[in-house]
Amino acid sequence: MVPDAHDGDFKRKPAATPDVPRWRARLAKLENRLIGLPWAQIGRSAAMVAVVVLACVVWVYRAPVGDHLTMFIAKATGATVQSVAVEGVVYTGKDELQQALGLQKGDSLVGFDASAARARIEALPWVRLASVDRELPANVKVTVYEYIPLARVVADGAIWVVNQEGDRIVTDADNRFAGLPLLEGEGSATAAGQLFATLSAWPQLISQLREAKFVGDRRWDLRFVSGVTVQLPEATADYGPADALPVLAKLEEARHVLTLSAGEVDLRLPDRVVLRIPDSVADTPVTNQPASRG
After folding, report:
1. Gyration radius of the chain over CA positions
2. In CA terms, which of 16, 201, 224, 262 is 20 to 30 Å from 8?
3. CATH 3.10.20.310: does it fit domain 40-146?
4. In a 10 Å sphere around its CB, with 0-12 CB exposed, 13-18 middle and 19+ buried, how is residue 10 labelled?
């Protein structure tokens, strides 16, 4: 007898599940994981990585890159110049400095060679040393150390500005440095550094100095704005300009010898001062008496 379907002793058997290959099951799990990934974020990250890699390739190989591509890379990586700060510039022109730097606000920093820019800046006439540094995120700092103009010298048919070592810096074609003393005589530019180092203790003398003539490659004659000439001694072990200049400073303070419109103050001898005053000079504050001849 066939049992009734409602008989409590009868249990329906579940339908048989077909066997699924193991590799198909693993593939299904992998598909589900891939579908759940944040593909939009991954796409943006991949694009940024590609831009950075391209920028590195351009930097390493220095290959010529079109302006549009360069700016695209710069904007994508935030490598456009926001500011250029310059320190230490007194005599170097703004235009020539900017041209040597090769960079200004808004330009791309992609492929910018700071070492090459520094070398170009140091090639400028007034620049002794320079540094070019990139400060994150996109600022550039340029520090310049210029030569200090010491005097002027006539050479090769022009008036040159020279530094303390006697090196020529630039020509003074526009008379910009007319206030600097004019050097004369063979070897004067080279020897001027020592003279002005000695004079530095007496700023009241330097401020009135108009010309300095190197005589016989061994000593100096100084001509001041009033017209008076001071003859300094040759430097020896016992006596020299460092000994004579304090005497001149005291004479100027007490007797105003540098107010003479002409004449000479001879300090070449260690034991005496000789004044030579021409007939054209009348009463003088040097003696407070009618000018005497010496």
Report:
1. 42
2. 16
3. yes
4. exposed
